[in-house]
Amino acid sequence: MRPVTLWLLLLVLSSATGVAQAQGKSKKKTEAPREAAASALVVGGGALIEAGRFDQSVRVNRITNRESDDLRDFGGALILSYLHGVTPGFRIGGSLAYSGFHELSVRDSNQSRSFGQRLALDFVGEGIIPVTDRMDLLLGGRVGTPILIPGGDFKDIITVAQNQLYRTNSGPRFGLRIGFDADVRIHLKPHFAVRAGLGYAWTRTWLMNSSVESESSSGRRKYSLTLSQVRLGAGLEWLF
After folding, report:
1. Domain co-membership, 18 together with 57
2. Which residues on neighbouring strands pair with residue 72, listed in sequence order?
3. Which residues 6+ apart lie within 8 Å of 54 measured at CB?
4. Is 201:17 a contact under the CB 8 Å cutoff?
5. 174: DSSP letter
6. What is the number of domains present in the chain?
7. Which end of the chain has the lower number of beta carbons within 10 A, N or C?
């Protein structure tokens, strides 16, 4: 083969390789990014298994009386959530749960303690792990606050404290909730899915921390409710 012909052949191959590389880079640059996970409105319910304690501390002058009741309960909740897709495998949002009138049994006793209407407001983060084309594993965490509207025995405690001139109010009580969830989601249609799973939450509600003072005496009342909660639930997702 003549040198001129060889040089021409090498030039053609070099040009072809350069064009192919340029096309490959162009495809990588113009490749569309993966879409974020679909947002969802979730409506569901669940059974709640709870255990905890009701701590009470009453101080009059220098004498303090402390008591703690071990409590347990089996109830239910209605849950409404909104989740917004931020990446292909992660969503964030909020959740509102309503558990009805809150009354718990005192362990090893025939007595009970009632506290009023109970809700929970949480910030939720949820990871999505695809299992099959129609099934996902959902792993999430939550942090928020319980919301207790006083009623029952607790409302009576507030009334007694107010009659004794303790500085307290009759409004809702708040606290801290921390928990995690694990659910399985099955897609029935492009915009509709069902989910079921379990979750755990630790909750503390600060019920009262009030005081009273006079020329001859002083007093303080502190009450809190601490619960560990296991949820077994299911729900429907509308994806959009």
Report:
1. no
2. 51, 105
3. 68, 69, 71, 104, 113, 223, 224, 225
4. no
5. E
6. 2
7. N
Angle CA 139–87–27, to nearest 5:
135
Asked whether the beta carbons of 102 and 148 are under 8 A apart, the reply is: yes
Return the closest-CA partner of residue 181 out of 238, 130, 230, 239.
230
165's tokens: 């001139």
pTM of the model: 0.82
CA dihedral sign of residues 85, 82, 204, 61: positive
Mean pLDDT per segment of 10 residues, for the chain of length 240 residues? Answer: 43 43 44 75 97 96 94 96 97 98 92 96 98 97 98 96 93 98 97 97 97 90 97 97
Count CA atoms within 13 Å of residue 13 on its CB side.
6
Query: Does 52 lie in the same domain as 21?
Result: no
- 131 with 172, same domain: the answer is yes
